[in-house]
């Protein structure tokens, strides 16, 4: 099973990923073909769904330990399911990875158009962190 994680939204930010996963992991730019990333209505994060001919640019975190996955699953919540995909890294190599795909039953929550990472960094990241962070304490008692 893959231990890499392809991220395409808020988790592309290393600081958010480290807080959620409970560790810092090596990462590389990567692309996932056959999917589309759209804004989730009323939120600062996107959802990703299969879409022939489209592609999603993101970040591939490498060799995550078993302890990271329950934390990531909890962070992603009920709207997403973890799926195995093949991504192409910036250097051209293909890697197997897990990613979180928006469940079809929630598709009506996706807005038209593409989610913009640069806009998230400029206007949404601080609000996202204020609302969703605290995952750095996941799994700790």
Give the strand order of the largest sheet, numbering strands 1, 2, ... along the chain.
Answer: 1-3-2-4-5
Here the CATH topology equals Hypothetical upf0131 protein ytfp
Provide the gyration radius in Å.
14 Å
Shape: globular
SS content category: alpha+beta
Average per-residue pLDDT, rounded, comes to 92
The H/E string reads EHEEHEEH
CATH class annotation: Alpha Beta
| Record field, number of beta strands | 5
Low-pLDDT stretches are none
What's the story with the biggest beta sheet?
5 strands, antiparallel
Number of domains: 1
CATH superfamily grouping: Gamma-glutamyl cyclotransferase-like
What percent of residues are in strands?
A: 35-45%
* Helix proportion range: 10-25%
Question: Could you characterize what this model shows?
Answer:
- By secondary structure, this protein is α+β, with helices and mostly antiparallel strands.
- The protein has one domain: Hypothetical upf0131 protein ytfp, CATH 3.10.490.
- It has three helices and five strands, in the order E-H-E-E-H-E-E-H.
- It has a five-stranded antiparallel sheet, with no helix packed on it.
- The longest helix is centred in the last third of the chain and has 16 residues.
- The chain is globular and about 35 Å long.
- The mean pLDDT is 92.
